[in-house]
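Thread: Modeling a multi-component assembly for a lab meeting

Hi all, long-time lurker, first post. My supervisor asked me to bring a structural picture of a complex we are working on to next week's group meeting, and I have zero experience with this. I have the sequence lines for every component (783 residues in total). Could someone generate the structure of the whole assembly? Inputs are pasted exactly as I received them:
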Amino acid sequence: MEFENHKTKGSATRAVHSGESAHKALDSITDPIVLASTYTFVDTQSIIDYIEQGKSREEYGRYGNPNEAVVERKLAALEGSEEAIVYSSGMAALVGLVMTKLNAGDEIVFFDECYHRSREFCAQHLARFGVITRQVEACNYEAMDAAINQNTKLLVSESPTNPHLSIVDLEKFAELGQRHGVETLIDATLATPYNVQPLSYGIDYVLHSATKYLGGHNDLLAGVICGSEQQLADVRNLRGIMGSINSAHNMYLLQRGLKTFTLRMQQHNANGQAVAEFLEAHSRISKVFYPGLKSHQYHELAVRQMVGFGGLITFEVDGANWRETADIVDRVKIPKIAPSLGGVESLIEQPMIMSYFEFSADERKQFGIRDNMIRMSVGIEDVSDIIHDLEQALQG
Amino acid sequence: MDKEKQLKFRTRAIHVGNTADEQTGAVVRPLHVASTFVQKTPGEWGPYDYTRSGNPTRDATETTIASLEGGSGALAFATGMAATHCVSMLLSAGDHIVAGTDIYGGTYRLLHKICNRAGIEVSLANSSTPETLAAAIRPETKLIWIESPGNPLMSITDIAACAKVAAEHGVLLGVDNTFATPVLTQPLSLGADIVMHSATKYLGGHSDANGGMLVVNNDDLYDKLYFIHNSVGNCMSVWDSFLVTRGIKTLELRVREQCRTAMLVAEYLQQHPKVKRVLYPGLATHSGYDIAKRQMDGGFGAMLSVEIDGDFESTKNVVASTQLFQLAVSLGAVESLISQPASMSHASYDREDRIANGIHDELIRLSVGLEHVDDLIADLDEALRNL
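Re: Modeling a multi-component assembly
Sure thing. I ran the full set together rather than chain by chain. Output:
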């Protein structure tokens, strides 16, 4: 069957059409949702042909389903990758990759601003299988260089990082890996393929929590790993064994969400920039972390490397203690208080409470999580409504 | 609710009707797929009893669209035609309807081949000249039904002027607002009594849900329509309600982007040597341009029709040869569609009526989607080269 690829087409066109068959079953304009857990063979010989000739077809739901396949092709087209493998969540995608690529005695090096659950999985759970996890200061390439040894197999970072929005120099990061013969992984969830395409800088793997901007409607969980066919073949194989696939219903919603992906990202970028500028100019705000601001530590790199800067903003309330900061969060009306990000609805949270409550004050200090810090995922609502809302919350 | 009214359209599209779930805190409300609801005591009804009569998921969709249209209440139907049919059932034998000439073929069929069986008479009148519409009104007229932009000729009807005619004669005015969407036009604020949508189109927006909507700003009228809705039972499914609600969250983004693209496509087609005429209200040459500019907020819709230098057969070939514009009826979704009204959406017209109403064989209708404008123009360019 022919699938649309559209390498030469605009991002909006790829979002709508790529990865899909030009002519779908029963002439329907959208893909059917295939709920089958297993797939039939017409006779015994067709099973033998399937095994011997390795023909591409469905077999059993744990190895994937047609709705997942179409999303994988669409994500690959948006990311500019040969291959994309979808998982049941972003964490499942990370686990799928590291469980495939690392063996006992191997080492993995993280920039320390990566999602704490990713680091936790490697440092605490992968450790049980003899994998060593090292963590170095984010964006400190010399420190990462120094942490690499002959056992190192994977370098990992997010870009932008969460919640500090630090930007990794992808060229440097990829070069570091190549110089040592070590593979590199960038979690680009916050950037999305609309804003940056890490593979074009020589990065080996890109990971997304597709729950965020790719799905975009806060109504599904999914993860994806993108890279070359050759490097991901064994990753796909292990996924089939571990079974961390996604459901057909979910995959349909993800495919549907991707249709407006380009449009949503343009709006998230515009709203994010406007809200960040508003916050920076506000007398009660002492610091704003947003790569689109000139004041951001990595602004120049971000401008060079990214199309836009997304909807995630972290900011600090001048001189506020945790309670005064919480009061502001509680006064906001439009953004809902919740973890996660990247949906059409704006969300807000205080990292100290939401994600780092169980950590000691010293640990939080070490992670750069301050009591007066607020993280906001700016949605696609009318930006004047969001700013108006923040204004009243900061005044109260 | 008053606070909500102060919020901008785009914000309301995401939040009104979509407050977090009280039980779980879920930011997206659960889909209530139940067909029936357990009651505490016989004869004492809870907020919901049976899904045909009311359902929390469908209610949310109705609440959102009521807010976007500036109405007090809305009803969600299985299809747009079910919604239009519900309006026609407000009438009784002996009553009369005046409908515009540039209306959807399915509405034409309902009025002429179903309503007539119930003893309801229909006259068609050109609604872009309200005096023509007024002249068609009889003492037994109960309803005026219009579309703007009209389908498929994109004629523009002055809704406020029609509302004045309707009010003078004590007749209800119903507006099919499918093409304009509430992003561009809110007919209730212009004096219409009932707004109808095929939610299958821009509201759902992804070619994967069927639905219809009625919105009113009058509790008495709402009650009458609700009585029919509940009695006839042609309500929107829970799954479709969810998909429409999800689609509405990006409605304004989609419609504004599609309008911008449609304008560029119209301008491209207008200068094409094989195109005789482009019917798009955003072009200064369009007869309804001035009214459209006043009545439509910041865009002229994403539907356009063109008459090409061809006959029935060669027109058929053009619509069959585009790649990104897919050959299909329907409209308003992220995918661009192309059709030949004479053989497709308006095939249910009697041929004489069709030609008399300007729907010629060489007419092509385009629904401009979300693809990149350069890709869409390249696609049309290629198809017209074969002409």
